[in-house]
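The material for today's practical consists of a large collection of protein records. An example says more than a description, so a record of this kind follows:
***
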Amino acid sequence: MQAEDQEADRVCQAVNDLVESGKLLRVEAVVDRPHRVRRYFFTGLLVLVPAWGTFLILHALFHTIDGLIANLLGPAGRFDVPGLGVAALFGLILLTGIVVTHIIGQPMLRWANELVQSIPLVSSIYLTLKGVTEFFNFQSRFNRSTVAVFPFPRRGLWALGFVMGAAPAALQVVPLQTLMMVFVPTAIHPFTGYLAFVPNNQVITINLPPEEAMKMEFSAGLYRPQQGWLTSSKKPESEEQGRA
């Protein structure tokens, strides 16, 4: 019996030596490998698809504008001017923004959106492209906000959100507390979500940049920020009371 135990110990030691030398993988590493590969694949997909789609759209716009300029200028437009398509596209976007803001107005723009969305095939393409532009608007808006966690939808569960500031005075209905407006995006499609009015003592700001929080929301948790960022920027109340 003792000889069998010694033989088992030698086998275990030999296996451990192989694992430490890298010649043999642990069972949990082999089991976890498919999950890790799947996570890497979807993370890469979430990064490459929007970037490649944006590149194709901009590339098509540049070529279209270059062709229009060449047709308008005639023989003079055959000369290749570096950056002309980029400058023309920037001017077209700027001019469109000025016309929509000061001439057409929001009611006319809303009517045009509803008209385009009523066309079956065109509406799918239009909504997809509109989602790309809404992403940049969403990113520029929430880059100026503060990332926080708070109990949602009930105590014991926590949600990641963006603090948009204090609620208007008409909505300050909690005595001795200031309600904060916190936007909670929905995963995968973060352009929609919930606007929660949370007492300020329940809002815990964390040391996480808004762009990192948005990546987590976009990827439904597949993207993992650096560990050092996931720390509370608020000091514990007991520590503050001890210092006071």
Observations:
- The longest helix spans residues 27-73.
